[in-house]
Amino acid sequence: MAAMTDLAPPLGIADGLRAGEKNGGSSSDAEVLEGSMPLRAARPPLPAIRHCASVGRLDIAAEPELDIGNRISFNPPPNRCSGFLPVLRSGSCTNIGLRPSMEDEHICIDNLADHVGEVPNFQFPGAFYGVFDGHGGTDAASFVRTNILKFIVEDDYFPCRMDEAIRSAFLRADYAFADTCSLDITSGTTALAALIFGRTLFIANAGDCRAVLGKRGHAVDLSMDHKPNCISERDRIEKLGGFVYDGYLNGQLSVARAIGDWHMKGSKGSACPLSAEPDLREASLTNEDEFLIMGCDGLWDVMSSQCAVTIVRKELMVHNDPERCSQELVREALKRDSRDNLTVVVVCFSPDAPPKISIPKYKVRKRSISVEGLSFLNGFLANNP
Predict the structure, then answer these.
(1) Most CB within 10 Å of its CB: which of 129, 262, 295, 318?
(2) How confident is the model over 175-201, as pLDDT tens digits?
(3) How far apart, in Å, are the Cα atoms of 374 and each of 264, 381, 383?
(4) Where does the signal sequence lie (predicted)?
(5) What is the spatial distance between Cα 336 and Cα 286, in angstroms, rounded to a whole number?
(6) What is the count of structural domains for the chain?
(7) Is the pTM of this model over 0.85?
(8) Domain span at residue 142?
(9) Cis peptide before 125, with omega less than 30 degrees from 0?
(10) Residue 325: exposed, middle, or buried by beta-carbon count in 10 A (0-12, 13-18, 19+)?
């Protein structure tokens, strides 16, 4: 990750957006049964922010194959917009916030060919991005950041059945982390990954990070926040013998899915209230899809998906720099008193800035009235004062 860098004063483009959002808010609020923890009243200082636009080359070394279990056949759908080909560029920014230490990790690879080499049947352009929100230490987040892409590429289903390759890689990362001797396996991390495969975008999420697509100014959530209070997650937890207390899984963890945290899990392969299995989402990119925002919960605790998309789009129209967009989102989250670590990745699908959205003006039709009609109307009004 890049060295610490001081930022210039806030640009101010997002200041007007805060007035319309008193509590920030999450797009999944409707599914939450209990309220989230209240924010502190004190405003945080604006500490130095780390940001980067690329990462180093990964070592795709061979590892023993792990048995993940039965897999479901999957054929990638044909691309429906043959004229569109994404041109990928990204930027990222991190900040420690009010936490005593930084436990987030992230990865940005705009050109996957530089990291995986020649892969049969792989459609380029290809890219990989990830945000990993650690807790209980940095070991789990660092391990997943280093190994998750390697596990995807080494899977037998890569690249023909991408959803199964990604799902297997998440579980393999969880099992491999449990087998490490030099790391603290009681640490854990949420994991949000985006893999671009030609014009197809795959999103995999385990935890409360979030991926949001900017589509001509509209926010489209591509992941679900796995909070214990979420109705579907609560049902799953209780069916497996767990419970939710004050918004925490078994009274201990504020997320319902994570890699690591092996002090809360049983033996490998056994059903457990805390799951490492990701939810997967697939989308076919079109020329209306402008950018992708990936962020940890420190961002979404104080900002809605639509607010983030509006900020990024306005910023891109000014300077067309995804890295500066990620910095602005972090600045805005700090202004809104985010008290968690902050990590934001912005991925653009075009080399050009988003076009200005114009609202068509409709012509007003002029209406005329006959002399007889006008006389009738005057009589009606006179008799009905």
Answers:
(1) 295
(2) 999 999 999 999 999 999 999 988 999
(3) 81, 11, 14
(4) none
(5) 33
(6) 1
(7) no
(8) 15-69+81-221+279-352
(9) yes
(10) buried
